[in-house]
Amino acid sequence: VVLNTCAIRENANDKVYGYLGRCKHLKKIKKDLIICISGCLMQEPHEIEEIKNRHQYIDIIVGTHNLSDLPQMIIEANEKNMQKIEVFSNSDIVFENVKYNRDSKISAWINIIYGCDKFCTYCIVPYTRGKQRSRKSSDIMHEVEDLIKKGYKEITLLGQNVNAYGKDLYDDYNLANLLEDVAKLGIPRVRFTTSHPWDFTDSMIEVIAKYPNIMPHVHLPVQSGSSKVLKLMGRRYTRESYLELFNKIKKIVPGVSISTDIIVGFPGEDEDDFKETLSLVEYCKYDNAFTFVFSVRSGTPAEKLKDNTPLKEKEDRLQRLNEVVNKYFLENNKKLEGTTLDVLVEGVSSKKNMYYGYSETNKLINFSSREELEIGSIVPVKITSAKTWSLDGELNG
Ligand code: 5AD
Ligand code: SF4
Predict the structure, then answer these.
(1) What's the pTM?
(2) Residues of the chain with pLDDT under 70
(3) CA angle 12, 315, 120 (to 5 degrees)
(4) Residue of 219, 263, 269, 309 to mutate, ligand 1, most atoms within 8 A of C-beta
């Protein structure tokens, strides 16, 4: 059993300890079971101590920097009956030649940059994932070429902040260059996530607009609509400069959809700041948004900030925010009724003659088709009805 953990918010932590109880029970009935904990939580020293002291039935603890050692650690755990721990804190390692077992045969994630140097004051990622490390472009290109040969139709270039790609590589090669080179390989769909607004250059926007196989969807986390709170968060942009970038992307990339992340209840956020977030959302009318209540992460600068807002009020703000974001998801989707969108067929639904897939703008579409469709084909779908988080349609033609 491998528990791959997340440390981004407190509730992710809590889930792990919930699962551990079940693992302990399993181990009692199956003595040769090997249990491993990996991921971000295991980059936090106090969590490792907790596992070492209170959960000795765990066989392997492995961090994010040496995950590639896991197969060898399993072999050793099988031979010796003792807890094995291997966690490095700040390493320069960039994994290559890892054998992936990919779930999908048509859509693949490709890491292009590990770690993050932004140190937003609320965020644990720079501590658990270490410093920004870009993969060599030649390694990325080989991986994409290999996936194309295997029949993949879509790739997503992945990183905590993909827009910083190449900054640590000592040449001028950046995300705009990489996107362009990958697009030229001819795979039908290229996506990328996540983009920090600070590193978004004009040349990136131009490349997204220029290549029809770079999908017109940008995930652009804003976190807050108040410049005061953005400063406390260490986000390096203001409400005004974010909106300038937002407008530029909307203008230059035709039909682009933009999604975001928002945190409410950051220490120091008052009702007026929160209202600025609401008004920014009213302006941006996002196609999708992931919304969170601020969660204190140990060791981050925000841990030391004074926080006067009761949790109840933060939860209330989240609910008010969700009402507004949901209203726009539906409103944007309604505008698509009657139009025809290209959909990459990802699977068959449990209902007869029903399929699902995503539009170029990353909208989930459930649709009917009388003819049998090949998974991985791109087909025109007429949108018949809009919901908040998905669209219904029928094969056109
Ligand atoms: N509390 C709440 N949300 C957080 N995020 C990151 N750290 C925290 C935190 N401490 C959110 C941000 C980020 C997304 C991946 O998770 O919105 O963009
Ligand atoms: Fe965390 Fe993203 Fe900020 Fe990096 S850019 S510190 S991953 S929120």
Answers:
(1) 0.95
(2) 90-91
(3) 55
(4) 263
